[in-house]
Amino acid sequence: MSIRIDTDLTYIQSKLNISDAKMEIYKDKTVEEILEAEAAAGNQAAIQLAADMFSDVSLLIELFQLADPQNKLTIMKEMTSSQLEKLVPMLETDDLVQGLQFFTQDSLLDLLKDIPKEELLKAVFEMFSETQVVELMPEKELDKLLTSYDMDKEMLLENLKSIPEMYLQQILESVTGQEAEGNQAELVLQIGQLGDLDYKNAIMNLEPTQKRELTFMLTNQENKYYEKFSTDAYTHMIAVERDKEELIKSMSVIKPEYLQRMINELPKDLLSIVTTQIDTEKFADSLINKFPELLAKFIVQ
Fold first, then answer.
1. 0.85 exceeded by the pTM?
2. Model confidence over 81-121: pLDDT tens digits?
3. CB neighbours (10 Å) of residue 76?
4. Coil, strand or helix: which one is 55?
5. Cβ–Cβ contacts within 10 Å for residue 156, how many?
6. Deepest in the core among 37, 86, 133, 236, taking most CB within 10 A?
7. CB 16 within 8 A of CB 46
8. What is the DSSP string of 24-83?
């Protein structure tokens, strides 16, 4: 397959001080053939250019007009997937986020499942307030958090004192079968003295609205509790409540290393397009120092 890229022959002509008449002779020649012919004719500038081509970033940018994304793409299409992946860390965060547009929303949600929960939460709270998260969280997730071994029981009981007496009486009576009496503090004390199973059942029997209020008080005091909700609960919430554009916008707060992993999941043809956004100098430097064999292929064609 022939590799074609728009080299700036005007630049070569100027750099090597070649006449218009001779350039007409060279019009069908490759860069390498022009340099060889001029070097054989004793043109010292051609000898120097041939040497600099594999070391001078500015020269390479001018020679192959690398500021043109289309020229970058021509080169990138000839790179392997592993070579392209080496370029991805050089992309800016905005470029990585833009590249996420090539994924479907379902694919993006699947990718979110593979990153640390703390990174997922950063994106979640770009889309939802803490109140909204608790309101939209399935009740079974609230039950799991409130009755888990990771929950600070003393903290929970302290916050339970903010729940109206009638609801405390209800949950206490639901597990004891006896009429409950006392003020909020006394009722909470009785709840705290229940056996482990009865205590958990009592908490799960709390009226849903009050259960969400209790959960919000706890998560507001200890943000780490948001990590206890399942990843699936969060991704489902996003799928139902937010569109793809809102999701992608929120993902800009995720650490670049995780965005890079996502971009590397793209098919090679799309990965090539995304990497054309790489800084031109960084790209030229990579061609010289990381992929000289690839650069050579373009020079000889």
1. no
2. 999 999 999 999 999 999 999 999 999 999 999 999 999 99
3. 23
4. coil
5. 21
6. 133
7. yes
8. HHTTT--HHHHHHHHHHTT-HHHHHHHHHTTT-HHHHHHHHTTTSHHHHHHHHTTS-HHH
